[in-house]
# Entry
Amino acid sequence: MIRHLRTTAGVLLAGAALAACGSQPPHQGSAAVVGGERISIAAVEARVGEVRQGVAAETGGQQAERAGLVRRTVVDLVLDRVVAQALVDRQLTVTDGEIAEAKESQARMMGGEAELARELLVRQNVPADAVDSFYRQQLGIQKLAAGKDPRTPEGDAAIRSALTDAGAKLKIEVNPRYGRWDVQQIGLVTAPADWIKQPAATA
# Structure
């Protein structure tokens, strides 16, 4: 069930770890800039490291490195902001109570909180400290379906429309080492682009 939820609307979902804007130039040290807020390279690397260590501990180090883990992590962190913006645009909210209820329900089905945490980590690349963010985003995606079943073409279209509008508003820029954010595809595509702007030459 978790796996199905994660692929709803054909986009990768997960929790977020955004770095606050500092005094640095907006692109320096950034994996992405979303609505003026930086997602730092350090935050991406920390999240990837946490997943790798957690999966290795759960599997005894037997599970091979997953292709595209870093890029998927960047997608997840950017998408968190896109979903949040889409909810604001449509005057929707996800409450802490809804998150707790969803976690409890799935924990019962999985056989307990420990099994749920393991499933999220090993299958979905969600470390322990990102579980609430994961559910906030999942529930947000469902609400963006505007009362329709997210698995239907109508529900999928409503979700994509909301995420596309939000992505365009946020003016997402991604470090080209990871790719480029495509607003229509709601994900990363490979395309070179200028990142840190060079100062204009002086006469």
User: Anything to note?
Assistant: The CA atoms of residues 83 and 163 lie 6 Å apart.
